[in-house]
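Could you help me review a protein record that somebody else here produced? Do not assume that whoever made the record got everything right. The record follows directly below this note.
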Amino acid sequence: MSSQAPPRAVLDSDIIFSRVLHELIGRLAARLRLLDLFWSEELLAEAKRSLIHRKGLSDVTAQRWVDYLRQNFPAGKTEIDRALSESELTSLTLDAGDRHVCALCLAAKANYLFTHDRGYLQEALQQRGIAVVRPEQFLLAAFEEQPRAVLEVLELQAETWAGGQPLEELLDAIDRAGASEFAAAVRASLEP
């Protein structure tokens, strides 16, 4: 067994917004030790606001949703370096609202930033050692490397997701969340 630490990753608020994706990535990170996830209070606060305003969740429900990272990855809490210059952060994203995410990635020494957001300047982040990755890329690679283990994680998530749902329902939700190729690959593996 390798003693090498897994890659370090940050989930952007748009990924936290998708409960099915952020929990799946979290489960794969924890159970299979594929990633160490890092978060900041600023990131969770942004995700909570978005869940309340865009999804219409209550304050309590939104808090429980974002607490997934806090509870399952307590060692991932990261303080953002307030000394980073505006120009340094501006060089990493087109969106001023995402500067705190870039600061988190830098402070956490992240290898990956999982997002669907196209406002991040991938080349500039790559020069800092941070790859901007769509969640589906990671999920497909994990499934290709460890299909049985990923399927077990999916089955566990289906058992607890929305009070317990069939795996097919979970795959439908993953498909709607923007990981249709991954969901299709899992479905294909289940066919006799």
